[in-house]
Structures are given as C-alpha cells and as structure tokens.
Amino acid sequence: RTSPRLLTLAQVTSQSARMGACQSSPYAMAKQAECHQQVSHDGLPTLLRREAGCGAATKCPVSGSTGSSCPFVSNGGAPAEASRRASAANCPAVGSSRMGSRTPLPSRPNCSVQAYMGQPDEVQISHSELPLPQDILPSQATLDDIADMRAWPSAAVLTAEDIVVVKGAWNRTLAWKDAMMEAVVYRWIILVPEVYELLSVKFDELPHDLYTMIDKSVRALDPRTEVHHRESYIAGFPACVTRDFGDTPSEIMFHYTLLGLRPRHWALLKESFLFAMKTHNPYMYKEHDGADLDRGDEGAVARFFHIHVVGKANQVLQKHLDRLQSPAALVVRQQAIALKPLQDVGQTFYRKLLTKYPDLIDYFADTDMDHHSQHLHATLTVVGSAGVGLRDILPTLTKLAHAHSQAMIPTSSYAQVGEVLCETLSQAFEMSDEVADFWVYVYMCCATVISAPMAVEERLLSEAREFFEQLAKEEDWGNARLEARLKQVEVEVGLCGTYRHTSAELQAGARLAWRNAPKCIGRIAWDTLLVRDRRHSNTAHDIFEECKEHLSIATGGGAVRSVMTVFAPRKPNQQWGTRFWNSQFCRYAGYRQQDGSVLGDPANVEFTEMVMNRFGWMPPKKRTRFDPLPQIVQLPGEEPVMCEFPRDLFCEIPLSHPKYSKFSSLGLKWTSIPAINNFNMRIGGVDYPCCPFNGWFVDLEISRNLVERYGIGPEVAKICGFDTSNDSTGWRSMVLQAVSCAVTHSFQKKKFSIVDHYTVSTQFLTHVDREKQCGREVPAQWSWIGGFAGVHCPVWHYEMRDFYLRPQYHYMSSRWVVEGVNAGFAASPGTNSRIAPEGCVDNRRVLILFSSTTGTSKRFANMLAKELGYGYRPKVMNLNSFSAGVALAFSHILCCVATFNDGASPMDGSQFLEVLPFGLLDQRTGKPIRFAVMCLGSSVYPKFCAFGKRVDKALQVAGGVRFAKTILSDETRGHAASFQKFLSAVRVELEPKPVPLGTVQPYLEVSLVPWSPPHGDDFLPAVKQGHVQARVICSQELFTKPTAERSTRRISIDISGCRGMSYTTGGHLSVLPVNPHEEILSLCDEIGIPADQLHWQVKAIMVDGDDRSAADISCRDTSLYDALKWHFDITVRASNLADILMMVRNAGGMTAEEHDELMLDDPEDVVARFWWVSRVLRAFPCTRGKITLATLLTTLGAQFPRMYSIASSSLVSPSIVEVCVGLVSIQGNRGLASAYLHSLSAGNPVWISCQSSSFSPPRSLGAPVVMVGAGTGVAPFVGFAQERKHLVAGSASVVLGPAQLFTGCRLQGEQICAALFEEALQVGALGRYSTSFSREPNTERKHVTDALRDAAEEVWEALRHPSCQYYFCGDGRIADSVWDALVECIMRGAGTSRAKAVAELDRMRAEGRYHLDVWGEIAHGNGMRRLQRRQSTMAKRWLKAVQDQHSDDQH
Question: Could you write out the three-class secondary structure of 400-441?
Fold first, then answer.
C-alpha cells in the first residue's frame, strides 16, 4: 500500500469489525474467549486454527502466505518461540524489512524511551516498563472485561409510557443540570474511588461529557419530539464546548472506555445518576418522577440508563475487544517487536514528517533529533502493545501523556503524525489492508489517551482567549497588550494546568458573568458590582471574617450594595474546592415536630438536623420559625468548620402591613440581604466555587418563600379577611399580593433597598435596550423573567432567547447531601463550637532552597522571597543547610537549583541528597509538603540540569507533592524568562497576600562603624567561600603577537603551601576574582561614602518590628572595602541589569520612560555600554547620595568564583597547577576574572580551590584516545600530553594506546603549547597532532571539524575499539558541530547510516567513554545571540542532513 488510509476516530469507532475473528455479534465474545483459551497441543489458539486451518498448504488469512512459508500455519500452525522472535522481521505476515542494512555495529544495551514527539529528556520510560506482547492470548484484564460483560443482566425494553416518563423527568432536570451532573460525578467517585484515578486527567470535563452522553441518549428515544417549536433548553453542555473525540454517545463512551472504564464502573454510574435525580432536582414531580425513581431498577429512568447508557457502553467495549483479538492484532504486535533493530525507521519517519509538515519543526527547535529517531521503535512497541489490551499499558500511556503535555504538543499534530507513521510502516513492511487498518486503530486509541491532558489544556486556553478577547474589546486593550497577556496565560497553563487572574480581571469577569446570567431579572446594575479579591484567605477563620465584612459592606446604611467576595479558585482536577455547605448566608432552621409538622423553614429540615447531629449546633432554648442557621465551610483536604455569624449582620426586617395592623402579630421577618454562596463562577476556564454574592431583594422572592415554604397563606387570609371557602375566590393571589405589599412597606420603613416586581421588570427591559445599543443581545430564561414577574408586567409577552454566554454562574451540588448526612466526618478542632476558633491561622510557610555556582540561583531565591513578601514568612537557605528539623516546619518548598558542569552538584548542594531521606510532611498540619523546582543549567552539556532533576525526584520520592511542572532553564537562552515562568507558577499556587494596614515589613539596616580588623589566615575574606591563598610563580604569554583585545596567558600557581590541597589531571581550578580598586572607590563616591570610612566595619541588622538580629549577608565581620572587593559583584550583567536599573529609577535617577527604553534595548548592548555599576550611577547623576548602602548591598549580587580547566599533570607537577586564560574583551571592556588573572605576576597572591572532574585520562593505559580542543579548550590536553610523555619516558614497558589530538585556533601565532604537543608526537605519546587555522592569511580556512572529517577512517578505527575514550573541550558553540563531524566519521568509516552512527556514540556515552568539558556563555560580541539562533535551527539542520543522506542513498 503506497498511501495508507488514515481513518478518523469516528470512522474507527463506528466501523464494523470485518476481520475473521471479529464477526461475532454483541455479547458473543464470551464464546470467543473460551475458544482463545483452548490452546492446541502445538500452541496455536483454537480460534485462529479454525480460521487459518492446520495443513501445510493452508492459506494464512493475515499474510496471505501458505504452507511452511508462514510461521502462523507452518508446523501444524504454530511457530516456535525462537522463530517467532528471531525471524519476525522476515516473516511474511509480519513483513520483511525494506530498510537497507549497512555494516553492523556492536550491540548496545537497552536505552531509555522517549515519546515520538517533543518528550523532554527528564521523562523517561525504561524498556522493562513496556509490555512486550508475544502471544495472541488475551491478557487477564481483557478476560476480566469479558466476564464482566457476560454477567451484565438484561432489562425490559422501554414502553411508550416509559419513554414519556424518562423524557419528562430529564427535561425537569435540565434547569439544574450543573448541580445535578456535579452530584452524579462526586457520588460516582464515592461509590468507586477508582474512577477518579482513571479519569483524573479528564475530571474537570467529566460532568460536561456525561451530560452530553445522557442528554443525547434521551433525545434518541423519540426523535419526533426533538423538533422544537421554540427554544426550550440548551442543546449541549454548553453548545460551544467542542471535543476532540466527538460528541455522540458512542464516541464519548469509547473515549472513556480507552481511559479504563469497564462494566462495573458504568453500573455504579447508574446508581449515582438515580441518586442525583432524587436529591438535586427541585422541579421533580413527586407524583410522577419521584414515584418512578422510588421503584429503583424497575423504574423507567433506571431501565433507560441500564439499556441506553450502560448497555451501549458495554457494546462499545465489546467491539473494542473484538478488534483486539483479531489475527491482525497478532501481526501488529509482532511487527512492533521486529522494529527494534530497524533503527533507520525512526530517521525515515521524522524525515517524512518534517518534510511534509514543516510547521512541526518549531516543536523540535531544541530537540536532539537523532535520539528521538532512535526511540521511535519503543514508541511503536507501546502502540503495538495496545493490541493486547489498552488497560495493560495505561501507566505507560499516562507517562507519555504528561510528557507531551509538558512539551505543549498540540492535539492537531496527532493526525499528521499518524498519517506519516502509517506511510512509514507500509514501506517498512508488506502488510495486508487488515493489518494496516489495525495499526491505524491502535494508534488512534493510544493517541486519544496520550493527547487527553493537552486537549484539556487547549480547551482551557481557548476559553481563556475568548474571555480576554472580550475583555480587550470592551476595555479598549491594544493588540500588543492582549497578545502579551495571552502568552503569559499560556505559560502558566503549561506549568500549572491553570492560570491566575489579576484583581481587575477578576472584577471584570464577575461583572460579565452577572450580565450573562439568563435567570437574573435585576441585571441592570451589573457594572456596579463590587468584587473583593480574597483569594489569599486560606483558613476557615479568615473566610468567615471576610464574609462578616462582606455583610457589613453590603448592608451599610440600608442602601444595599451588590458585593461579591471571591476566595481561592478550584485547582485543576481538584475535588470540590473551597465551598460552603450552605446555600445562603442567612437561611432559617427547620425543626421537625412530633406531629410531623415543621417549625421554621421546611426546606432546611435536613440541613438543620445535620448541623445538630454532626456539629453539635445548639439552637436557641426557645426555638422560633426564624432561627438563623450556622455557616459551614470546607477547604480542600480539611474537615468542615462551623461558624455562627452575629445576628445583627443580617439586618432582619420585621414585617408589617400599611393597611392591616394585625399583620405584625404574625411575627414574620426576613433578612435584608439575599447573599448566595452556592454558585460556581467560571471565568475564562477557571472555576471559583466559593464566591458569595448579593444583590437586593425583589418583593416576590420573600413573599413566595413565606407563602409557599412557610405556608402562611391561611393566617394572612384570616387577618386580611379574605374568603378562603374555595379557590375560586382568588384568596391565594390576594394573600401573595398582601404579603408582597407588607415586604415592600417594611423594607422601605427601615430604609433598606428593595424593588417591586413590576419595577424590576421595567428595569430589565431598560437593560435590554442599553445592551442592544452596545451591540449585545441579552440571554434570558422566560420562566425566571416573564413567568416570575407575572402576567400584568411588561416582560410577560416579551419573547426571549435563552442562550449560553461566558463568563457564567453555575449551580453547585450540596456536598453534605452527596457525601451523605452520615458520611462519617470526624469533627475538626472547633467544629463543636458555635464560633470558629480564633487560633485558626494560615499555616502556609515557604522554604526557599538554592544551590549556586555563579550566584544566579541564590539571586533568584532572594527575588522569590521578596515577591512572596511578609505574608508567607519565607526563609532562604542553601541545600546543604536543609534538614528534617528545618523542612518540616514549612508547607511549601521552592527550589532554584543549578547544575555544575556535566551533571554535578554545586558545592553548597553536595550534601542535600544524603540528608533528604525523611518524609516530607508538614509537622503542623500532617499534610504533604508541596514543592516546585527550577533547574538551572546549560544545554551544551549532555546531562542538562541533571542535579536539579535529581533534587526534584528526591523531593517527590520523599513524599512531597509537586504543584507545578519542573522548569528547565537553559543558560544559552538566558535564565530571566524561565524565572518569570517559575514566578508565575508560584503566584498561581500561593496567592500574593496584601500586607495589613499598619504592618511594618522587615527591612535591612546597614551602618559603618570604626573597627580594628583581626589578623590571621582565618579572617581572610576568601576563606569563607572555600578558597585558600596560593602564590603565582609564573605568567607566560602564549600568543606570539598579543594585542589589547586578544591575549592568552599560561599561569602557574604554587599550591605546596596550601594545606591539604591537591588536584587531578583534567580537573578544574576555581579562582575567586578581585574587583578593581579604582571601581570600588568610584562606586563608594557615587553613593556618598567618605574615603575615610571605606575600611570601617559593615554592620547589617534585620529589623522585624521590635526584633533586631544580625542579617544573613556575605559581608559580615569585614570592612566595606573588603566586602566590595571580595564578596559583591559590582559589574553589570544581563542577569542583574533589571535590578540595577530599578534601583536607579527608585532613587529618582531616571524617568519611567528612560527606564523602559533601556529595558527594551538589547541587554548585551546595555551591559557593554555601562559594564560597571559605578558607571550606571555616574550616567544618572540625580542618584548621587540618594542610594543607601543597604539598598546597594541588597541590589548587588554575590561575587562568584570562575572555573578554569587545569592545564598541567598532577603526576608530573603535583605542587604546581597551571591554567590557560584567554582575555575576554567586549567592546573595549575587559572581563573581570580574565583581566584580574592577566594582571598577576610572579609572587602575587591568588585565592583558589581545586575541583575534581570526570574529565580525566583513561584508567587503561592501552585505551585509544581521541581528543578535540578549540582555542583554550586545548588546556586539559596539555596535562594529558605531559602525563603521557612522563609515562613513556618513565618505563620502556609501558604501552600506551594510540592518541589523536585535533586542535584549532584562528592564527598560527595563537597556537597553545604547540611545542609540547610536537615533543609528545616525536616520543610516541601522541599518534596524531593536527591543528586547523580558521583565519590564517593566504591559506585555506579550516576548522577542527574539517580535520576530523579528513581523518574519518582513522577516527572510526579508534572509536570502534571497545575501550576507546573520546574527549572534547571548548566553547559550546562548536560542540554540536564536532558531534556532527563525529557522526560523519562513523558513517564514512563504518559505511553505515546516520541513525546507527548516533547509536554508536550513544553507546560510548552510556559506557562513560564520551567526555565533555564545555562552556556555553562566552559573550564575545554577539556570541550569545548567535548561539540562540543556532539552537533554534537544530531540527532544520538535522532535517537537511538526513535529506542529503536520503538523496545520496537513492543515487
């Protein structure tokens, strides 16, 4: 097949099973299962024998082969286990490989598996986790599913009368579908908790999907009645919600079947549905709907659900299982296994994919395409494993799903991937149509599961975009502001699965939701709603206090004001969220009397009994009809808490009538505030389930409550003298009118806001006219507008359209009802009290950990602490200071973790992994500690962010709960943007807290005092940073013609006097630089420090109220001069530029426009313009004397040591360590560390520390060695050459393996240690020494990569040796170019494909024979920007390379 068909999911699910083993009718799978379990003596399942036959000449229904040529029918129809594995690639049924094979390479161990698209390196799945199906027998899980379906009982079909009952009951439920479907889901989870685990990724959309499935099933009962004369109810949930998997009942059922739902789950869904119909349908007719529901399984509603939902779901599962046991399924599983050795398949697939769909290249911008290509076979193994049964590989698919979500792989790409995948497979194997269709089927099944998390995020982003576009239109945002905000939302959703609204956006969204509410007649004042942002309130006590304040504001002075108080939003896939158990702030108790009557509000009888029995609420000694109920609130993961509001907050209005004086004797009263607290507000895809809201009363709302619920009609009629002898006298209408008149009169008498129903209907029409003038149609539900107001009001005949707009309010289910009155809640502390405990405070505290080599991570940690502010009392410390005693006092841990070199830990984090093994539980609350990690590293190293990933994994293993996806920050792209992402994720988790009025936040107080510094080595500033003093003995210029811009020196340092110090060949030397004397004086002069105070002691005090303690800063016990000389970085860098400019702006040194202009300029250009902090202050003279010393020291970053590769051998000169230092010069500015080292001469002190490294000579002297170094990257090979020369000279019996050294530089006069290498070449210590000159005049320009390609045969001869060691040292900008050159060397030398060449290098890396020592941030001119552009085209360069190879192969 040259162009395989790619079926849509709808086609796949609706297509009848047409393979040989798939012709069974529904529920006949039981018989087939028995056949499958009847295995013949030769191992072939009986079912397949029946289809294929047993004779040697029998034709295989799968491959079309006959006799012994097909392993499915040879030897009596059963292939031997060995032949089934070893010969799979040549089996006609499996398909013979069409991929060319070249010279075989040494076998490699099983590697980690990555997803076929964009899977991050940190998400790996080992082969041991992947089921490798090799039998046609169904899995045990599949057999269990078959047994469940066989046991499913049948039900009587529905009669015409039954259908009327079902449709009527469902139609009366639609007005409350939000609350009802939420009750169905939560009740379902209570009955079978496994459902939440299976469907957690789709939890937020589960009510929508179930509603659509049930609603369309009901409509299908009698299609004739679905031609609506006018709008009656919403056709979807809502109609504007789209799904990636279709919206027919069968498609929804199939989708959830793939996620793991089975017959027992659907059966318990029926029980949940019937429960919700009984408890969350206020419009239910007890005589009809209630009577039917009371019949249980015999009722029409129950039988409908049994047949048309559960039964149909089982049929969907039946068809799915039919296909999984077809002969084609066996072939697919065998083909998946056969793909493993065919490494070129992955390369072919990605070449075709990126060529056909170039838009996908952006998703591979920074991806190692060679490795992704290698792992395609593992992905196809997962897909092929779906033929055994999807349940068996759900854990694997779930991992892939989260990985793809983290990589933001769009769901639209899966169809494109599937198309190219099928095309690639059809070329790799000869396969029948049945097999090709089954590949499509299992791929779509897997893709449905894998894409589910991203589909949820895409729908959230779509809803967010809709909201912000509406907001931008109505508030006149510019397009730039809109796109910037949407980009920020996309980042937050990608990290946390949700995003955070600003307070202004929250208010706008709440007002829009009120404007869009179709059941509200009083929307004319929608734009006056006061929204109180209280999302930071995180305890029941705080919530109750805010609600009391809400009531005080709303009722102030009698002029009722519309107020909403918004608490924390529900997190993604979180059950319930923060919510009240009550429906309103003020509802009156209902007491059941012995005679069956009710004292008080009959609607609240069950709730009253619950709070008395479960919470110990004590009503007043003398019970009345108007006793306010207590409020109950429950936060996620906590017990419910009860609180009684002071009664005077309700401002109850006693009712009297202007005409009937005895009316007041009835003792009627009502609260003045209709505060509702059981609505869920959804804004831009974010749910706020706890957002109490009040408007003001319409007279009919109160009068109907009193007449209909309290039953005061006869009492009022008696007082008013109405004739109640029969209904025809109209006394019931007159009672309602009299009570309404009394309500209006009483409220006006007390000067509280109220509106009569005639006036409010007129106001509604005014609102409609206003909206029409703005070009907006008003949604309205007539039964709540015209039907409510009455026949004599102008809205009665006003035709309305009830349509769905967002943002919107939704009804919520009653948690105490869903979980049951006797759900067994353990009373939390204080729940037996009538008032919530005052000591209930927010226990959230934040620990911020860092590990840093250059100080960047520490700076980010301090910025986090500043951002979180005083509210969360953050504590900052390095990883080595972490301990159980410290950690368990915090609720959250935030980590900024740097990785040193190729996967090592910085010195201040080296002990963390040894200390951690203890459970991460907050000892105050007993809850798991929540954490998030930002990993800082450089992608030029293969083990990118390796230490940060280990820290992240260790926190998870210790029991911590990750609240945001781990951020991998790449130095080559700059850390600032990644930190902003991390900060956004932290804000979503920890809502910024406002500082209470009058609160004085802690601040740093710095002063200078005269002192006499102590003497001795123990007080040297550098000792505190782990460095010791040594002496320079020689500084030699290595260039023959150095200039002020280009110079490299070889510096020799004597460490014999450094107690306990030693080094290793190939290691690193850490050097602590010194800030120049002139710049220190200039900086102090700019901030107004007198020269005679430079050597005074720095006293830093942290002031926190009355508490004054020594501040934890690096310059304690030292003078100001020494602090600026050793401890603080007084240069301007891209990483600290924003802080320095903000310091100048805050001091009045520059205008906002000047600040913004500098921030918009290229950071590297701004850095080169100033270079030193003193120059920034000098450029803005208005700051002179206005920046305090405390502000300066807080803004400056910590000084950090610089790492250099050691250029000497510890075997040859153990007491002398050497480094080669190239001078860094950018637009006339010299680098701090390189200029400092170049200024040293013999006898000068220098503060150093020696660091070990894995970049060391091979232990086996006979191992072949390939070394590549460019520029000063040749430094470690100086030590290697010295050591090899020493070994050769020391003993004639020493046999060294062949060594090849490839170096490169610009000019011949810039060679480094060329004489040494020539000597090593002459004595046999080196076998090859090659130097390439890229800018030598009058000669051909050549790079080190050209030399490698020229010596491809010799390089391959060395690399193929099983003990060969490869070393590269140099600038990260050429690391990838050298990698490509090595790949070409192997391809040419071995005559193999690119995929196999990459596999060989991977084998060397896995075996620890591939060594890198690279640096990525070398800012020569615009080098950093060039590096960013180069990395953004990695996928394009790879695609060009494989396209060229493909063209060569064709020729």
Answer: HHHHHHHCCCCCCHHHHHHHHHHHHHHHHCCCCHHHHHHHHH
